[in-house]
Amino acid sequence: MLEIQTLIDEIQEEAKRAEFPLDEPIYQKAGAEPTQPILYAGNLQSQLCVFGRDLGKDEVATRQPLYGAAGSLVRKGLYRTLFNSEARDKTELEKVLDQVLLTNTVPYKPPGNKAYSTAVKNRFRPYIERLLVCHWQGDRIITLGNDAFDWFTPYAPKGTLKEFFQRGDRYSSSQIITLQAEDSQGNIHQRPITLLPLPHPSPLNQRYYAQFPQLLQQRLSTIFG
């Protein structure tokens, strides 16, 4: 845990180095320091990572990614697959964290519900790379929504992910990429990762919201089945 704490500390140092958009009132309401990253929840030894866009108010309040309405849909699907039953409450849903890593493109909450700019994502990209390549031990990533999937574009040949995402079977097919990260000593590490995209589980995503639980279940069945 010492090494992952070092990564978290370095992210906070970067956040303090120069200003970027932060939803400070939400952090203040939660009694949280805005520059303290909420990097991940779950198990770094797990085979599966669920990768979202960024944090919401519920995530700031609980210090966990994917805890609000959309995250609860993911956690409920995981619980259903792992335990073949329905969780009684959010406390019981915590059991799924033994089997998954939850993280985002940026470990902070932007003002409102607006996604972070590409510049902010790229500013924190080296740290997310290190989390996924140097600390997490798994090799399958479920991405939630377009922003989360697009984050991986630099790790595939030009046009590959764009072409993949235009396919009609994108939410049932997979794409292998090669993630790369530079550790704190300047060494380069590479690992093959299988991307398993899904639509974002938001009620605003009218086209796919009703389909999301079934699409997620199909993904999870191939991993844990």
Report the portion of residues in β strands: 15-25%
What's the total number of strands? 6
For the sheet with most strands, the description reads: 6 strands, mixed
Class of secondary structure makeup: alpha/beta
Apparent shape: globular
Radius of gyration: 17 Å
pLDDT < 50 runs, ≥5 residues: none
Q: Whole-Å distance between the termini?
A: 30 Å
Description:
- Strand 5 and strand 6 (188-198) form a beta hairpin.
- The protein is globular and about 45 Å long.
- Helix 4 packs across helix 9 (212-224).
- The protein is of the alpha/beta class.
- The protein is built from 9 helices and 6 strands.
- This is Uracil-DNA glycosylase.
Question: Short description, anyone?
Answer:
The chain has 225 residues and is of the alpha/beta class. The protein has helices spanning 2-17, 24-30, 57-62, 69-83, 90-93, 118-135, 145-150, 160-165, 212-224, and strands spanning 41-42, 48-52, 101-104, 140-144, 175-182, 188-198.
Topology of helices and strands:
Blueprint: H1 2-17, H2 24-30, E1 41-42, E2 48-52, H3 57-62, H4 69-83, H5 90-93, E3 101-104, H6 118-135, E4 140-144, H7 145-150, H8 160-165, E5 175-182, E6 188-198, H9 212-224
Parallel strand pairs: 2-3, 2-4, 4-6
Antiparallel strand pairs: 1-3, 5-6
Helix pairs in contact: 1-6, 4-9
